[in-house]
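haha ok so turns out i had the wrong file open the whole time. this is the CORRECT one, sorry everyone. sequence first:
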Amino acid sequence: MFRWRFLKQFPKIALAVGVFVVSTGLFGFWWYFKRSQTHKENVVRDDRAKQKVEAVAEVIPSMEGNLLVADGDLYQLDSGKLLLKNWFKEAMPAKLFLDAENGKLIARYGKGLVRLNLDGKRDASLGGQYGLFINSAMDTAVYAKDKDVWKATINLREFKLVDEQRVTTTAGFMERFFVDNILLATSKVLVVRNNNQLLRIDLVTGEVISTKVPLSGLKNQRSPDGALVVGGATERRVQKLFVYDVEKDEAKYFDMDFRMKVTEFAWVNRNTCAYLVAGVALGVYDREKQEIRQLMRLPIQCSEMINPSPTGHYVFCGSLNARVLVNIEGKKIEPLGTPAQHYEWIADDVLLCARDVPDSNLRGTWVKQIGKEEVRVSTEPYTFASRGGGSSVLSIKEAGIVFFSTRGGMFKMKLGETEAQMFAPLAKPLTRFVYIEKWEKVTGIL
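then structure:
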């Protein structure tokens, strides 16, 4: 039995106990009702967010060709309106297509495809654990299974592989490494590095042989369609340039005009490959004419060729310390004025340039049309990677618009003009734009 006499002897303790009991009880009542209120508020907020996503998903098909994803956020191109934050929750793809007819999105990644609903959530995927090699039309896949090479047709309506065919019977290919080690590929043949060998696989007959030409350090040597590879070779002290045709399994050799080694290659378009000779001269291989031509000597020592223009008319040559813009057709150097830290082609003869420097006269984003004076379109430079080719610039030829982002905002500008408008304010710089393309532009499989 509780002894009240004890508390009467110690009134201060009694008071403290009373305050503790009453306050604990009041806090418990407050917490219970507060939690119930917070839960109701969260439910209402989630319902509103869900309704907003559903409302946007309903109108997406009618906005075909007018949508942009920027770091997962969905924007309307023409108005600049932010439609949904964090709409696209997958990793940003290389390409994103809208199949408006079927109400789906198709995302293309390096080793697979993902189909999504219009609310941005994943619906299905193709690629499995180790990935697929998928052709440009996205209708055929090549992969390794049961230690052999297989090929299949991609049924995009049902989003699955059909007509699977075993190509080889050698049981010597590891699924885990196969796709990553494909070096060259066409619809008929591919070359893959397998167990320290370079193997040529005929996808029609299943024949597997070693390649006749040693291929190493391919880097920029592969043609855009994966059918050819160029390289340099030395034969009896004579420098040669070779062109290997993967489908024919043949190599054609060209004697160089002087005994200087070919040091770098760059396919500037499907039919033209530029090459450096000892870093001091420039030549080209013409695929259609099956010939090489020495074009010009360069004004600086060059160790690389980067960033060819969309049509292959121009290419940058240089090193870490300096670079020049070469006009391949005109066989001359095009002046660029004050060097920029980064360049992006936004049209066949128009560059967007970024200078992240303290000098207010030079700082910013500039438009440079070849043969004309540059024009500043933003006082802040577009964001770009200090190493590599990454930047926050996206040129959409179909829409006639170019986008770029600075540390403070996202801008859009009509191609052919030199006035940029704030597209949306940004709390942090963007890392990736993806334009949602029309599906029929790529394939009619669906």
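The first strand starts at residue 67 and ends at 70.
again sry for the mixup
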